[in-house]
């Protein structure tokens, strides 16, 4: 992929992430002020296709955005180039996706069919 495509992919992933971040922060404020416990939260998210899709898309956007950002840092600061740069960034993206997907599944999967 050309650098301009990667640049655009990172900017688009930021655009996609923005509403997810706002909703997520709003939910954090709501739960703190509402005094909800972890049991309360899981009771609302377990089996929810909506929250599964919401946080699943959030994880995809974050994985792409973070991997491309770290790719730039590795190139500029660590001097990575070529295949080592692309492979390292891809591995980081896959790891972030796997960890995020595991968390989304853990919080929402109860009762999903």
Supply the key terms:
single chain; 113 residues; mainly alpha; 3 helical TM bundles of succinate and fumarate reductases; 85% helix
What is the class in the CATH system?
Mainly Alpha
Low-confidence stretches: none
Strand proportion, as a percent range, falls in under 5%
Any idea what the CATH architecture is? Up-down Bundle
* Shape designation: elongated
| Alpha-carbon Rg, integer | 17 Å
Based on helices, strands and strand pairing, what is the structural class? mainly alpha
Count of helical regions: 4
The CATH topology annotation reads as 3 helical TM bundles of succinate and fumarate reductases
How would a textbook summarize the main sheet?
none
Helix and strand sequence: HHHH
Mean pLDDT: 94
Number of domains: 1
Number of strands: 0
How much helicity do the residues have?
over 70%
Task: Note the quaternary state here.
Answer: single chain
Q: What's the N-to-C terminus distance?
A: 37 Å
3D structure, described in words:
The protein is mostly helical and 113 residues long. It has a single domain, classed as 3 helical TM bundles of succinate and fumarate reductases (Up-down Bundle). The chain is built from four helices and no strands. It has helices spanning 3-34, 38-45, 49-77, 82-108.
């Amino acid at each position: 992929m050309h650098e301009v495509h990667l640049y655009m992919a990172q900017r688009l992933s930021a655009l996609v992430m923005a509403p997810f971040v706002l909703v997520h922060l709003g939910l954090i404020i709501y739960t703190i002020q509402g005094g909800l416990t972890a049991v309360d939260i899981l009771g609302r998210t377990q089996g929810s296709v909506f929250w599964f899709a919401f946080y699943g898309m959030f994880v995809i956007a974050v994985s792409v955005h973070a991997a491309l950002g770290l790719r730039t840092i590795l190139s500029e600061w660590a001097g990575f180039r070529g295949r080592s740069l692309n492979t390292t960034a891809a591995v980081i993206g896959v790891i972030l996706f796997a960890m995020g997907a595991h968390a989304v599944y853990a919080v929402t999967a109860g009762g999903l069919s």
